[in-house]
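Treating backbone geometry as a discrete language has practical consequences that deserve illustration. The sequence in question and its structure tokens are set out directly beneath this paragraph.
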Amino acid sequence: MRHVLVLTPQDALRCLRAARRVRPQLRPGAAMEVIEAEVLRGLHAFSGSELCDALQSFVRLKAQEPELLQSLGEAFSIQRNSMAPKQLSSALMSLARLQLREGPLFNEVVPEIVRDIVGYSHRDLSLCLWAMAKAQQKDLRLAHRVQQLYCEGQNSRSLQPMDVSMLLWSFSRLQWHAHPELLGRLLGCAVKHTLYDLCRHLFD
């Protein structure tokens, strides 16, 4: 508290990241208020990776204040055009976990993901689709484009178990009737990984 006047937003962000590793009952309330306020003050000056760190920290801290969530959503809307796919997908996941369900925020970002989808990894796409489903957004353009991508030859066999789980859960939550070919590939990946893990545990 004695040094708060010399804290930069980046200093405050480092403090916020550290605080999320401290048990809630041990976090000093007055200091946390100052740290959070300084992070919010610097949101619009943060880089994409710093904004992702801030969002992840507020997720861990279980932030719920409407004004805070609104500020986070606004900062993402301003910076999303300059964020790399990995950063954007991570930010979307955090916003969904914070239960920020502002329609325009998700509706505006979907066309951009669909447009630039070639630059997204399997994990990026899985996270984006998971965030849409978690936030209960019924915009199915992304689900349609992901299905089209994998059915047209994108190597779905390199999907990791977590990616497969997120895609299947997202399709179910969005009530998206996946093409039988895509569904078969995803279920095949799930079975393959399950058998691999079973054999590994048996012979370890």
Notes: Residues 15 and 122 are 32 Å apart (CA to CA).
